[in-house]
Design a protein that fits this description.
By secondary structure, this protein is mainly β. It folds into 2 domains: about 80 residues, Elongation Factor Tu (Ef-tu), domain 3 (Beta Barrel), CATH 2.40.30.60; about 60 residues, SH3 type barrels (Roll), CATH 2.30.30.240. About 5% of the residues lie in helices and about 40% in strands. The protein is built from 2 helices and 13 strands, in the order ββββββαβαββββββ. Strands 11-10-9-8-13-12 form a 6-stranded mixed sheet, with no helix packed on it. The longest helix is centred in the middle third of the chain and has 6 residues. It is elongated.
Length: about 170
Amino acid sequence: MSGRVCVGAVAGAFGVRGEVRLKSFCATPEDIASYGPLCDESGRRSFTVELSNPVSNGFAARLSGVATREQADALRGLRLYVDRSRMPDLPEDEFYHADLIGLEVRDTGGGLLGQVRAVQDYGAGDMLEIVGPGLKAPLLLPFTREAVPTVDIAAGRIVADPPEGLL
């Protein structure tokens, strides 16, 4: 498991008083402000978050140390992380995307399919993006109990049973 989990991103400035448009990646979007200070990927910059109001695709928010529109706009694209230890424990069949990325993926016969590069959600449910030496293009595997019967975070592997015709 990684040390940090990405919980949101700055989409740009909101208004003229230093607020940002904040996209939340949390299951309950408002929770992004409840994890305490959020940091950038390196961990060098830290921000406290105060949500103002919901806006299209996120929230208007105030980040500590950001007072002008120019400062807010300069943060566009900044991904915000929280230490894994501050995240709530999940039920047995739920996973943080950060825990899935990098896991080895094998088919039910033990053959190597590749490694999870990303977890995508195009609106119909999560898809595991798998890359590997035997794949010409990234494989998008539905992240369902049928297609992914086993996820073993401790062992660093996933057992997949891809739907007929996917490979």
